[in-house]
Amino acid sequence: MTATLNNATAPNTQDYGGDEISALVLDPGYSVTRGGFAGEDVPKSVVPSFYGITPSIAGPKYLYGENAVHTPLPNIEVGNPVSQTGVVEDWEAATQLWEYAITSRLTNIKPSNPLTNGLNDKTDDLKQEMEGVEMQERPLEENPLLMTETGWNTGKGREKPIEIAIENWGAPAFWLARSGVLSAFSAGKPSALVIDVGASSTSITPVHDGIMLKKGTLRCPLAGNHISDQLRLIFSTSPSIPLIPHYLINSKTPVDAGAPSQASYRTFQPGTEPGPSFRALQEERVLTEFKESVVAIWNPGRLGGHNQHGGTNLDSARTQNTKSFEMPDGYNQLFGVERYRATESLFDAKMALSDASHPAPTPNQTLPQVISQSLSQVDVDIRPHLLSNVVVVGGSSLIPGFNERLKQELETLYPGPRVRIFSPGSVVERKFSGWIGGSILASLGTFHQMWISKKEYEEHGPGIVEKRCK
User: Which of 461, 466, 449 lies closest to 144 in space, CA to CA?
Assistant: First the structure.
């Protein structure tokens, strides 16, 4: 491994596929994994990052895709290869999940071995013909792959994807890009403060001239799942609201608001019930529906504070318009102050509900404080420029009132500089900003010289990612 690295020399066209071959962009997250061809507007493949596990005589069977994780099969459990911090913990499951995301919608699934598909007799001739077929039929033999990563990814977490892409999938070239930088890129900003509010965490990424400022890149644990936890605590208080997922309901009868539900429930044969992890995921789907249709963020001021008339904002919230929501079992209710209470702890830790399983966040974990910690790590001269280019993305940032409240909190923390929030109006652009940035980047003709070719990987090993993908 003595060859020198040279960014200025473009790989040969056969190394990365050339102009005629589209690169693939894969954007794995805690909730969903997005995949598609570079140059397209939206990812064609959007699959849950969760996977099903069912017992069988031969051992556990792993199931991938939307239908697999939402069908109540006997004894099904649900796993996720990505931790709450966004870092891969189970590489074997991650490899299979990502390969499913690629082959189910983007490339052809490699053909099964004729020896084991039940259609052929087992002959020695066929065995000889099939030797090495697994090495020949690989999903990315013609497509370079650009993958995204979190700003706090580990060394192993950076090297393993290129091993998988080139050794397992046969990719001719590879690149690893920070999702925060790609979100800034999708917004058309070389310098920005990117706030990505996802399911398991919120990332704060300062980007300057297209480079992630690592010291200022921080993770905030308060995001979509935290709001779900707050909703569970709200629903468990008196009067409690039943959280029964769709798959347990056979039929339901309409009832008045606040009245007990009248539903018939699905039963399973003893010993065949779906596992608790499956139920937790299905409950999360109900909570996601609730978040998308009911939840909002209080403005102006803090919910626990006072308004300009001397009253409390909590009292003001009780006079706001209510929203109705019907649970899967038919129970329905009008929600008022609860709409705002579930999200307030993103900004004000004192308003968080908590119990033994869901401890309250500390004041330093709230979004305004994590953003402040991030900006304190960057050069004082570029802070005003970052504050005037705040890019807000991520599915959980779609909650009504989020951008207005964030702007208000930042202006309170930084009364001098002008604070400007940039956020895509389109739901698709907000949810898939990292993937879209990767799609733009990988489709640029000038980007071809950046690819790490298979030849370079073979010369330098997986450590080349640390040297090239800054």
Answer: 449
| Both structure tokens of 457 | 């990987």
Cα angle, residue 134 at apex, residues 128 and 137 outer, rounded to 5°: 115
**Overall size of the chain counted in residues:** 470
User: Peptide bond before 139: cis, by omega within 30 degrees of 0?
Assistant: no
DSSP-derived pairing of the beta strands 173-178 and 452-453: antiparallel
Pairing type for strands 173-178 and 45-48 reads unpaired
| Residue 79: strand, helix, or coil | strand
pTM score: 0.89
Report the run of H or E that residue 68 belongs to, with start and end.
Answer: helix 66-70
Distant-in-sequence, close-in-space partners of 339: CB < 8 Å, separation ≥ 6? 294, 295, 296, 322, 323
User: 77 forms bridges with which residues in the sheet?
Assistant: 53
pLDDT of residue 342: 96
Q: How far is CA 75 from CA 52, 58, 70, 221, 278, in A?
A: 10, 15, 13, 31, 9
Report residue 27 as tokens: 């954007």
CA nearest neighbour of 83 among 41, 28, 121, 42: 28
> Quick check: helix, strand or coil at residue 419?
coil
Lowest mean pLDDT among 17-31, 223-237, 335-349, 355-369: 17-31
Closest residue by Cα to residue 454 from 201, 150, 67, 171? 171
Cα dihedral: 122, 126, 128, 129 (round 10): -150
Three-state SS for 290-358 is: HHHHCCCCCCCCCCCCECCCCCEHHHHHHCCCCEEEECCCCCEEEECCHHHHHHHCCCCHHHCCCCCCC
How far apart are alpha carbons 438 and 448 in whole angstroms?
Answer: 13
pLDDT at 18 over 60: no
42 close to 110: Cβ distance less than 8 angstroms = no
Written as six digits, the tokens of 165 are 């892409």
Distance CA 63, CA 418 (A): 50
Residue 81 and residue 53 in contact, taking contact as beta carbons nearer than 8 Å:
no
Q: Please name every residue paired with 205 in a beta bridge, in sequence order, or none if there are none.
A: 194
**DSSP for 221-259, written as a single string:** S-SHHHHHHHHHHHHHSSSP-----GGGEEEEE---TTS
